[in-house]
Design goal:
Blueprint (H helix, E strand, L loop, with lengths): L10 E5 L6 E6 L7 E9 L13 E16 L19 H8 L6 H12 L12 E5 L5 E16 L5 E12 L2 H4 L4 H17 L15
Antiparallel strand pairs: 1-2, 1-5, 3-4, 4-7, 5-6, 6-7
Amino acid sequence: MAPTSEPLRGGFVLLDPEQGRVLRVVPFQYNPDTLTRTLQPQGVGGGAGDRLEALRLKGPPHETFKFDAEFDAADQLGSGGLPNPTVGVGLFGVLSALETAVYPSSAQLLHENGLAGNGMLEIAPEEAPLTLLVLGARRVVPVRITDLSVTEEAYDGDLNPVRAKVALTVRTLTVDDVGFTHKAGALYLRYQQDKERLAGLPVSNPAAVGFTGI
């Protein structure tokens, strides 16, 4: 009997925004049971009656993903014969990996403090790592985490969390946000182009919806 392959897991991949080098991978222990996507179209017109602009779009829609990621230290196993990564720290490792995605690095904070102490001001903060939400090969999306809520549900004897649920809201970064030359812009275009390709798969038969012509 052939061994069954494990199901593909989603997660976050953090990249160097300039070189595209992988800095960190945060896989989901369990794939989300449900995922809510919201698309807010970006129309040109200001409202009803704006006849010249009614069918115009000024840019990609604002797309948000909302889902829960659940973690349980009792079910986590080390890979490749390595020890279980939760031993002694519970879920602090995986939770910290998620949470620090929305922190500037401590090195950056110390650098800015040093500049301020010398009477200098940084023009623009250093770019944070580029966060990708990866949910299968057809959904590799550059995102910004806009909301992260952690519910710790159980602890070990040292008060390390051993079961937790993380509620996440992320917003897709489009070419409007980062431009066409940024790595996130290229990844977004690939994501949209794949949508357009898949949208052309169904048979376009007007009779299927009772449309007979104008």
